[in-house]
Amino acid sequence: MADSQESPVVHVWKGLPSKRVAAGTSGRAKCPSQSSNAFCFSARSFKRTHPTKAHSSHIDADATLASSMILGVADGVSQLDQYGIDPRKLPEELLLACKRLARRQLTPDGVTLPAEAYNGPVELLQKAFRETQSLGSLTTVLAWMDNGMRVKGKPHPMATIITVGDCRALVLRRTYDLYQVVSKTEMQRVDGNANTPLQLARVDSRIDPNFEEHITLDIIQQGSAVQCVSAYLGDVLILGSDGVFDNLFEDEIAHILNSELRASSTAPIPGQMLERLACRIVQASHGKTQPGHDGLMQEAPIGRAGKCDDTSVVVAEVVEWTDKEKTDWWLPHYQQQLPSTWQNVLKFALLGTVGCCDSSVGTVCQDDPDFGPSEFLEKEMTVPDLVDPKLGAPTGNFLSDVSHYRSLLRQ
Q: What predicted TM-score, i.e. pTM, was given to this entire model?
């Protein structure tokens, strides 16, 4: 049977199962049942504070997660800083909790204890929120690869997407040599007001003396929107904060992809290109708040001139799960990204954390609590050249080099 004849299955829930819809396929996409391997993501992220806020005391509370099995954007409420609450901590903590759970529940061919079995997106997000402790408020969109689904007895990987609030996700597929949107989520805003999105929160008496945490868990249970979309090799997922989707129309995002990618190519998209796409989407979002070539303010989904907002995006491609992806999935984030140079080793040995290896990206990397402290650097930190040349070259094993240098510091 040709790929184009097989209709993918998409389940859509609003808290609880409600309806089933279908999305179009492409003759160029490789259907799940024709692949002997499980599927995963190749992903990159980019975020940037809007230029109008960059030089003020404004705190960018967005966080992103781009990994082999789970993607995420969490848009924190920066205004909580006025109450003495760090608005960055809860978004960061929630995404890391989701990744820890995904490692235990969603790793292909992994050993899962009955108590840690995957029981759907709503329960996973609820459990992740229970594992957090920080105060804050956020909207979020998460996507993960579920290789446990079967259709007519055959493996049928699904991209599961869950949203709370006004972050959104698009799934684009190659169709007639062009990427087209085949599935999307919608914003969840109270009474359609852009200033009142549905949120996940934990606050104290400074904000609401009557706050009870079960309210947030109920919001996840009854207010979240979930989609399970058939995953095809080469599908592209775009996850973004409202700063993206308030400013860019869906066809404008598709145009960015089609202007950068050759949809007829069967080769995986290089990581640098995924990063470039994420950067271009953020730049285009901020560009909507400036006059166009004709001197007039541009049209945007939220209205003419768009909205000045912090903007975060994750761009991911569906690829096959191989030994390389398996290794990357289990490595801590800093070991995946950073070359083992003595300068990076020294940063981690002294500070317990390291900055992003690519300063051109303008974002920060995070450590994984499974392997080290959950600290974030707000900017690239410099360390004096204190490395003894007698050490020789690093071994190439980042954690081993860190341990070796820390032992030297104790002498």
A: 0.75
